[in-house]
Amino acid sequence: MSPRYDAILIGAGHNGLVAAAVLARKGRKVLVLEARGHLGGMLGDADFRVAPLPYALRPEIAKALQLDQTMLYAAKPLDVLSFGADGPPVRVSGGLATGVDIATAEAYAALYARLGRQARALGAMLLETPPSLGKANLSEMAGLARMALKMRLLGKAEMRDLLRIVLSNAWDLLNDEIGDGPLAGLLAMDATLGGAMGPRSPGTVLTLLYRMASHSPHGHGLRVMPEGGPDALVRALSDCVTAAGGEIRTGAPVDRILVDGDRAAGVRLASGEEIAAPVVLSNASPKTTLLTLLGVEHLDGEFVRRCRNMASRGMVARLDFDIAQAPALRGGGALKSGQRLVLAPTMQAIETAFNAAKYGNLPDRPALEASYDGAAKRLSVSAQFAPYDLKGGWTDEAKAKLSASALTVLDEALPGVASTVTGSRVMSPADIEAGYGASGGHWHHGELRVDQLLMLRPFDGAAQYRMPVAGLYLCGAGAHPGGDISGAAGFNAATAALRDGRN
Question: Which range marks the domain in which residue 344 is found?
Answer without folding.
Answer: 77-223+316-387+391-427
